[in-house]
């Protein structure tokens, strides 16, 4: 829903963002979209191969998977504590 509008805004405004700052801007944009319940695939489709957005989505997904793994590790440690 928001992805298409965000894509249009990004395409118009990214030329005003310094090249060295675009990766961080893309990270923030992807985070905002996901925080507003946009699906990563919908974002990827709306931005049609924009390199910064693609990298930001990949980074966000990888970080999310790492956090899930950390929570699972903590749960396993808690389970073993109960056994002692």
Q: Write down the overall geometry.
A: elongated
Main sheet properties = none
The first-to-last residue Cα distance is 50 Å
Q: Provide the helix percentage.
A: over 70%
Low-confidence stretches: none
Total beta-strand segments: 0
**How many domains make up the 3D coordinates?**
1
Mean pLDDT over all positions: 86
Order of helices and strands: HHHH
* Total of DSSP H or I helical runs spanning 4+ residues: 4
- Percent of residues in beta strands? under 5%
Alpha carbon gyration radius: 17 Å
Please identify the structural class as seen in this structure: mainly alpha
List the helices and strands and how they pair.
Blueprint: H1 2-13, H2 22-35, H3 40-47, H4 51-83
What does this structure look like?
The protein has one domain. Helices cover 80% and strands 0% of the residues. The protein has four helices and no strands. It has helices at 2-13, 22-35, 40-47, 51-83. The longest helix is centred in the last third of the chain and has 33 residues, at 51-83.
Key descriptive features of the protein:
84 residues; mainly alpha; 4 helices; elongated
